[in-house]
Amino acid sequence: MKVGVVGASGYVGGEIVRLLSAHPYVQLVQATSESRAGKYVASVHPNLRKRTTLRFSKIADLEPCDLLFLALPHGRAVGLIQHMRAIAPRIVDLSADFRLKQKTEYPKWYGYEHPHPSLLEEAVYGLPELHRQQIRDAWLVSGVGCLATSVILGLAPLFKHGLVREHMVIAEGKLGSSAGGSAPSLASHHPERSGVVRSYEPTGHRHTAEICQELAFGKSPAVMLSATACEMVRGILSTCHVFLKHDLDDKAIWRVYREEYGDEPFIRIVKERQGVYRYPEPKIVAGSNFCDIGFERDPHSDRLVVISAIDNLMKGAAGSAVQAMNVMFGFEETTALEFTGLHP
Amino acid sequence: MKVGVVGASGYVGGEIVRLLSAHPYVQLVQATSESRAGKYVASVHPNLRKRTTLRFSKIADLEPCDLLFLALPHGRAVGLIQHMRAIAPRIVDLSADFRLKQKTEYPKWYGYEHPHPSLLEEAVYGLPELHRQQIRDAWLVSGVGCLATSVILGLAPLFKHGLVREHMVIAEGKLGSSAGGSAPSLASHHPERSGVVRSYEPTGHRHTAEICQELAFGKSPAVMLSATACEMVRGILSTCHVFLKHDLDDKAIWRVYREEYGDEPFIRIVKERQGVYRYPEPKIVAGSNFCDIGFERDPHSDRLVVISAIDNLMKGAAGSAVQAMNVMFGFEETTALEFTGLHP
Amino acid sequence: MKVGVVGASGYVGGEIVRLLSAHPYVQLVQATSESRAGKYVASVHPNLRKRTTLRFSKIADLEPCDLLFLALPHGRAVGLIQHMRAIAPRIVDLSADFRLKQKTEYPKWYGYEHPHPSLLEEAVYGLPELHRQQIRDAWLVSGVGCLATSVILGLAPLFKHGLVREHMVIAEGKLGSSAGGSAPSLASHHPERSGVVRSYEPTGHRHTAEICQELAFGKSPAVMLSATACEMVRGILSTCHVFLKHDLDDKAIWRVYREEYGDEPFIRIVKERQGVYRYPEPKIVAGSNFCDIGFERDPHSDRLVVISAIDNLMKGAAGSAVQAMNVMFGFEETTALEFTGLHP
Amino acid sequence: MKVGVVGASGYVGGEIVRLLSAHPYVQLVQATSESRAGKYVASVHPNLRKRTTLRFSKIADLEPCDLLFLALPHGRAVGLIQHMRAIAPRIVDLSADFRLKQKTEYPKWYGYEHPHPSLLEEAVYGLPELHRQQIRDAWLVSGVGCLATSVILGLAPLFKHGLVREHMVIAEGKLGSSAGGSAPSLASHHPERSGVVRSYEPTGHRHTAEICQELAFGKSPAVMLSATACEMVRGILSTCHVFLKHDLDDKAIWRVYREEYGDEPFIRIVKERQGVYRYPEPKIVAGSNFCDIGFERDPHSDRLVVISAIDNLMKGAAGSAVQAMNVMFGFEETTALEFTGLHP
Predict the structure, then answer these.
(1) pLDDT tens string A14-24
(2) Structural fold of domain C2-122
(3) Is some CB atom of chain D closer than 8 A to the CB atom of A47?
(4) How far is B263 from chain C (nearest CA, A)?
(5) CA pair distance D19, D171, nearest whole angstrom
(6) Would the CB atoms of A184 and D182 count as touching at under 8 Å?
(7) Which of A141, A150, B224, C224 gives a 20 to 30 Å CA spacing to A102?
(8) Using one digit for the tens of pLDDT, what is the confidence trace for C67-103?
(9) CATH superfamily assigned to domain B146-312
(10) Considering the domain A147-312 in this protein, what is its CATH number?
(11) Segments making up each domain of chain A, as ranges
(12) What is the radius of gyration, based on Cα positions, of chain D?
């Protein structure tokens, strides 16, 4: 099976290349970068030295293949989608261009009118844990928002089971610097970024739209999202505060999560009574496709705190995308995603 | 004026020594450490080389002086207080032993019955921004909880003005490793602690008690506190979510903060329209006694997000304590607290 | 094939468990920890959740198997070796107990008389790049010193080809905190260790002995080693300064390295004319078994600077050990060592 | 006394502004930035909020004052020097434009012919520890190179006393990211720069020229310099390897350092027998003007390792410059430089 990556010089594109280069059933035949065309992929992603001898090509040079991953900036894929479809019958687009079902959300959150609203119906939100069946048969699968993924996977069982009072969540995501992409700026300049805990989107984060969409099990949720940048390169920890309709104890909550996620290969419920690792930590999942989820009932109120950790470039982007590809083509879902993370 | 520090080998004690060693009106005459007695203070706090030649003494060796700072573990000061009072007529105790007014809070949050409840009435909570008048005349001033300080200072104007719906706040504190003290453990072992974003008290944090007490302007607030450890040594960023009773715009909220804090030397309202530094950051206040406070109105709901940043060892402990001492003795309040922080 | 790990609760032992748990031809049947016996391996190494359900056993419970990895503190394996040999016919010992050929080096560098000097002749230094043939047939393979590995691999071609004036090298290793092991101490306490660049062994580092041994191609070298701790968890960068006998240009030096390492699966010569990644970096090899080597000729003198980067827990310990096992049993040498590292 | 800073939006310029804003005898009346003219200084250096209300002006707007600090890129000051001298009778230039005495060094190391070689004779290298008398009377004082400063101060006593064999030193500087200035680039992009130990100038570092000049006590030294970037924002640790002519013990070396530096307010000899802080560390001097110097004799050879730590923006730039100003105007040399650094 032949696959291409469009926009492979960025962090998400590079991560897909890394994963595919170790995928036993897939041949990565092309990786584009308009600005680096002609250069070795490994000159931009130095971890891939001795792993791939591929050079970047241009979009104009794309040759027919079985699947294309699009890892372009938001707003770019939407204009290229028909062209891409002519090159490959199946597409996984990692931008936000096909994540939202309601076309009215695009001007609200992304500042543009969606030119192909009919495709929004065809596209499937690429989280296998929620849409495995649809992904299997889709030609167009949307990648996921990294912060959104951590919140959605953390809360979906609770919302699905109707356990959350007022359908409201206050979610605070703490993100590593790779979530900001590969383009340097003053905000990402090391002396300015190193060691910060920086509130960068206290309100108005675009992923709110995705989260509302994916947690709406019959009723639209109220999602209060805030994002804070922390000192790490990869990783997201989301701390989500919900209030329970009924006074559920730990066991009852466990049961809900186990029911929904018991068979999921990439979700681990992390909740230990003691020790250093009793809740999820992004450091532990860095490089892996895991989403670790934990929770704690507030003994002084009806609050439930749900904590989830992912690697933003993996489960929050490239990992879920490759997982979706595995689903689309009937491969074992964990293929090329077996890396377990490091300790320490 | 002669001053002593009891428990000077810890981080807070060392910070008080550092501040006092540059204080023009105060002579630091003794600094105790039971385990390091006889050793140079600078052998434990190497930044103080060439600054002080003081050696640690023992509590048993304390000589009369004008004021004692107690920087002992929680539960230690309460048993020593009468002894200490015999040595110095005025005391600033940095533990939690005299922070709470209600004796019933001690068994609930700290696990012990308070043996001197009458002293709880005499003690003043040592945040000059809230209790300047009382501190001036107190013989016993309590230090402040670091996480509590960031939340209290961030929200006091809103609660005082009765602007918060249901008197409820969901507050998430992100803390540096020095907040855990100077004793090594697996959780603080560098390979385990470096680079983490670790949820360590999703619920049940003791500072809840202080926050409730200090934000109770007539009515008891509902404080939902969570604490997350981040990769930094000094610093706290608290992100506080409240819902407004009335739809206030930025200007109206500014006005409230300016009214309460306009003359405060250590509070800065940080809210810029653009740029990297538009919200408070603990990195920028590290080493200083500032509390930077910012806020953002959620355009999609009635939520107001308040963000406050302090150095936990300074404004959250030693800095506020020295500030309180300055108030108690009529010194210029900023004396020895002028350090402005570094950039970058 | 059945394998066991003795001392699996430390970082090196945990890393071996991680590697073996993904090894297709090996079954990890036992992992000992005297202090954690009975607990899940994944409770100590949380990255292994959902990967292994093994529990720690005790040395006393070891059952016969095909190979044992010993990951015990220096001086422990030497006393247990005959006992271990009775359990498994082949052993890879990761301590320093069997690294040195000369028994006189043990009192000098490790402070003990070696009780089994005859075994020192049987043991093979476990760096496949230098001793592949001998490893194949050895029953006892010694693990490698992490700092030593980076220096040895960086310089072996130059010393082997007799290019170094006075056989002297000044080598400075910069090490991450995991090289200090898993036991907490004041030096490793996060507030003390975070952000440091700390000279901790300017002279007298024990790995000097190994380096001298492995770089002695006919003549004993003069190795001036210094070690500095840096802010990272995994990784070593060694900067080695040698003076050339003859004025070799880049091409000539390239040729020497290519001759020695051209077929090595885990050595990459990294030397680019421009860009951010033109020299080796430990960050890029973290988690992988690569040793990246680069060099630069000083245009103002006859100095050659050789730079080499490894992950101390991988190529500097567990990775080389598993590589050695692959050699011993005739597996493809890269088996279970394919992880390529992350970017960023 | 009125003072101005030219080029105040960079890190060194900002640091001078910070120091002067707390200087009791100096009034900072102007701070220029061509790109930020009109904006508040505190909008670029957020630590200065509430400390200064100064706005950036342009060079064209400079008004006469008593002294100007020039903090411009290399090669800029040399063209402006006569213009600046017309504005202020005394100048401290922090670039490299007036550091070197030999005009032939400029094309060699900095790539340009020096247009005013006669000024090189008038300019004084601004390290008070070496040139206090000349600084006092100079109209033009040159700032110092940060890496150079750490090496020069570490080794000057040894070279002055003629103790170093072959006048040779192998010096490895480990630098924080602020040494690279305030302009973002891929190399400084946080995901790329965070956690690295990156060899960026293994040979050919420009500061070689300064070091050779300042360590030439009668005989030109051989300086083998290498520079490695580490994970820290502020700070330099230099590890310098020299070989001793005679076998000096610790006491004899101590005596040499004490003779040269015994009265220096900003130099501390750090050499303790045990403990975590037995050698100099940049973390401990961050924000301060200290240069901490330690050493260790290699028991296995005639090598002496000298370790020195500074804050590159302070003792390595702005701190030394303000110290020089204090000398020039007869102020107490430590004025405005009293900050002692933080622990932890």
Answers:
(1) 999 999 999 99
(2) Rossmann fold (3.40.50)
(3) no
(4) 34
(5) 30
(6) no
(7) A150
(8) 999 999 999 999 999 999 999 999 999 999 999 999 9
(9) Dihydrodipicolinate Reductase; domain 2 (3.30.360.10)
(10) 3.30.360.10
(11) 2-122, 147-312
(12) 20
